Amino acid sequence: MKTLFQNIEQVMEHLSISITMDFRTIQPYITQAEQKFIKPILGELLYVALIRYNYLESQISEKNNELLSYIRPALIHYAYLIATPKLNINVGDAGFTVTSSDNLVPAAEWRIRDFQKSMQESGDDAMEFLLYFLETHSENYPLWKHSTAYSFHRQFFVKNAADVLKYTSIDIKRTEFLLLKPFIRIATENVLFGTLGDGLCFRIMKEFQEEKLQTKTEVLIERFLAPFLAYYALGQLQENDLFRTQADTMLAKAIQYIQQNHSDFSEYKITTPIDVNDSLSRIFVFNNH
User: Fold this and answer.
1) Which residues contact 88 (CB under 8 A, 6 or more apart)?
2) What is the pTM of this model?
3) Distance CA 228, CA 267 (A)
4) Which pLDDT tens digit goes with each residue over 144-179?
5) Distance (Å, rounded) from C-alpha 132 to C-alpha 134?
């Protein structure tokens, strides 16, 4: 099966470990990592296009080459994360066995655990760089910008771990950010829509999704709403009252800013905030590209 790597030499460019295996050994795990981690980020059309271009070097563009340089570090670390528990296991008539010799013996379990942890962390870090690159170069990749993957990426004002760092100065890993996403959704659907009203929230979300933000809408998101979401999610996940208080402060400042600039936010109506512990959940569909 074709992958975004063609050979073991390309693999070795992105790993700082000794590799002695044949490319065919790691290739199935590269395929699994592409399907699990990379394809959902790129979207179906861009992923298929890159696979095709990867095997037609005469047609691959400089832009796609640059994109591959961001994809491959994440991909290969995730591939080894998936592969590690299985690489030294043989299945045959004798059942499950491991390979050893006079010079080579299976690594200790603690070494394997440390290796997997390192692969996860390196893959997550590379994934954040990939997301940042795509977001800052979206005009170069229309297959991504007009995909459901792109819409999903811009579903909320806080999109990744880098945004959490930007708005709160709290440095987290991608795995931690994925744990925050349910709380970001709750805060958006319940608190923001319940406090600011459907009309205003739908309008600013549409501007955000289409990257057509009016100046004061951008200020509202960047200075108040996105920090609110980040602090709220951190406070809920970590059960941290300091972060919760900071979230309350950001939301109060957002409302004050809206009231001070009412002509720019005429859809705003004073409402009774929805209790986030209430059973009511506002399920809505964002603008589809």
Assistant:
1) 98, 99, 106
2) 0.74
3) 20
4) 988 989 888 888 999 999 999 999 999 998 889 989
5) 6
